[in-house]
Structure formats: C-alpha cells, structure tokens
Design a protein that fits this description.
single chain, 315 residues, alpha/beta, UDP-N-acetylmuramoyl-L-alanine:D-glutamate ligase, 14 strands
Length: 315
C-alpha cells in the first residue's frame, strides 16, 4: 500500500449519486388530490452527499459511482466536481437514467414517505471496481453505502482487505442493512439508525430507549465493528468502541428538511477520524453537521467548514 501523505489522507467514497426532489406539505396530506407544498431540488445520493461534505471540510476525496448519459447526470457530475470531489472515475451509462429520489415531508419537516429509482446502481459492478482498483490502493479510508449490488459489495470489501484500507459502511436503509452482516468484522465505522441497528443486532428498540441503544452499539462492537454509533433522531446518538461507550445529546434546532442530515453526520465523523480527533468529539462534530443540514432546505449545507461545526456546538 502506498504510504504517501496524500494516500493516507484520501477517502474513497463508493455508492449512489443522483438528484433529490423533496416536497414539504403546508397542511395535512389530502389523498387523491394535489397538495400545496414547498418543493426543492438538490443533488443527492448517500455516497455523493458524503463525498461533497468531506470535500467542503477540506478532505481529499474521490468518488466511484454511476450516472446516466443525460442532462441530470451531467449536472450531478459538474456540481460534485466543483465542490472539490475527484469524479474522474465516475462511470456514465445509457442503460438507465441517473438515480432519482423523491421525498415528502409533513408540515413539521418530518419525512412522511419517499421513493427512489436507483436501477442505475446495477451498473456499479464488481468489474467496474476492479477496473478502478488503483483507487483502493491510493486511499487511506473507504466509505461505501449498502446500495451497492451484492457482488460489488463483496468485491469492495475484498479490495479493501487486499490493500489493508479501513472500511466505513453505511447501512443506508432498513431494507438494505442486512447486506452488511457478513462484513461486520471488516468494518472500522458503522453508523446505523435505530431501525438498521435493530436489524443488524436482531434486537429492535425505540429511539427513546437509551440503554437499549447503548446495548446495540456494544453488541455491534462485540460482532467485530471497531467503532459503532447509532443515531436516535431527537434523542441524540450512542457510540461504542472496545474501550469506551457513551451518549451524545442532540442539539436543539428547527427542522426545515431532514434529507442529508445523516450523510453530513457521516462525513463529519470520518473527517474527525482522519484527523485523529477523539471518538467522543468526533460524535459531537457529527451531531453538529447534522444540525446544520436539518435547518437548511437542501441536502448538503453549502458553507460547511470545521469552524462552522465548532460554532454550532457553542450555540
């Protein structure tokens, strides 16, 4: 493995990139009719969001993803490149359109339901990862989301093992979380929400049950994860390693749109780990990043910086 400083600092991000459309209802949902709402668009995809957040924090980062040969894909790529992400290896295909997410929030800003069309990730194959094997060798850390097809997920972990690069893995959703079960002993950092944690541990729990959440992160560490965190929404976050565990309270904030808050948390924690910040402080920076995005009507807070994260904690 290349031991240069550039390699040790570069994060390789693998997974979804696309467009988000989110509508926030202005009153109770009325079925079978049009509902007044505030509607916004932004560039999204769990992996792409993490990559952009890392770049805005000043972290060298490369993205492996797939976009369509369409205007939407061109715009996603251009925006992500301009944010500071190396997108030179992103693959464009004409087989599927660029990935698309559509969310509906209630009048209080909570997600009511959502849809996504991520068929294009079928083109994020194990062969594509092998073609870009040098990106694994040149990285100090890998982040991937569970949207990857299962063969590609297996190959990503195999290449990471080959080059001895730590892996951070995002369960992404309750429907996908179980895909990570075979790889828990290879994961440096895992941040599920409480639903995903329940699936991975086999013990569901409520977000308000702090002791159950602490038990979940300890269980994930016992299953082989090096650092486990579980996000609990307004109830904060629990974390554990083999040496310590604890709880961080959420910051009190208004909610404009929760989309992307978890991705911002991921990026801030990864940034902290890459810069040798202690785990409890890393968790606090993650909570801070999520809080900034919750108040912002978009998927990535455009003025993100380390100073902004510390300022948020001081409020």
């Amino acid at each position: 493995m290349n031991s240069s400083n550039e390699t040790s600092k570069r994060v390789l991000v693998i997974g979804a990139a696309g467009l988000d459309v989110v509508g926030r209802l202005q009153a109770d949902l009325q079925m079978s009719t049009s509902n007044p709402a505030l509607i916004r668009t932004s560039f999204g995809g769990a992996a792409r969001n993490v990559a952009e957040n890392l770049a805005r924090l000043g972290q060298p980062v490369s993205l492996l993803s797939v976009i369509g040969k369409d205007r939407m894909g061109d715009d996603v790529l251009s925006h992500t490149r301009n944010a500071g992400v190396d997108v030179s290896a992103v693959y464009a295909t004409d087989k599927y359109p660029t990935g698309f997410y559509m969310g509906v929030l209630n009048e209080h800003g909570a997600r009511q339901f959502a849809f996504d069309d991520m068929r294009i990730l079928e083109e994020l194959t194990d062969a594509y990862l092998v073609y870009n094997e040098d990106a694994f060798e040149k990285s100090g850390l890998i982040f991937l989301d569970a949207n990857l097809p299962e063969k590609a997920l297996k190959k990503a972990f195999a290449l990471a093992h080959k080059y001895k690069v730590p892996v951070c893995a995002d369960p992404t959703s309750g429907a996908l979380a179980a895909r990570l079960k075979p790889y828990l002993r290879q994961i440096k950092l895992l941040i599920p929400n409480r639903i995903e944690a329940g699936i991975l541990t086999g013990r569901p729990f409520e977000a308000s049950n702090r002791e159950a959440a602490l038990d979940a992160v300890r269980t994930l560490v016992n299953l082989g994860v090096e650092i486990a965190m579980v996000t609990l929404g307004e109830h904060g976050l629990c974390y554990a390693t083999s040496e310590t565990n604890g709880h961080i309270s959420a910051l009190h904030t208004t909610v404009a749109d929760p989309t992307g808050a978890g991705d911002a948390l991921w990026a801030a924690v990864i940034y902290a780990l890459m810069n040798e910040i202690e785990i409890d402080d890393a968790a606090r920076l993650g909570i801070s990043a999520a809080s900034l995005v919750l108040r912002y009507p978009g998927t990535v807070y455009p003025e993100l910086s380390l100073q902004k994260l510390y300022d948020e904690l001081a409020i």
